[in-house]
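U., I forgot to send this yesterday:
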Amino acid sequence: MTEKSIRWNENIQEKFDGKIKYKTNRPIKALIGDYTDSMAPYTNSMLRRMGIETEVVPTASDVIDRVNTGNQYDIIITNNVYPKGESGQQVLDTLKEDIDFKIPIVILTVDQNARNIYLDKGFDEYIEKPISEEKIKKIFPELINDLEFIKTKKQ
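Result:
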């Protein structure tokens, strides 16, 4: 774990407003690979509002490192492109070299109407940016067994 990625995660987590709209029927943890100052906090906050624990890292290498060092996640959300030539495809190809690897990998991209392209490349699902409650409620239960979102009572 690099000091830079630890600081990145802390910085993104600090931007979450603490408002939880849903809880999950069991603990769920997502690893988010995103380097952008605008979308990383947005994606993180959207997942946290849905009751999902998150960790955010800025590079494809950090995503791979987190998994390879034994951190446990229920789902991985990766950008399509990263700085310095890294990519979501690199994340997918590297992690799936291990035949026992079972964590669903979702590509989060600005590419419009490209679901079949990314599924054909081996991703478990495709989400067009920006992520939304509706997309999370539809896609995550399809990828994470027995996942349910329960609306919290208004405070």
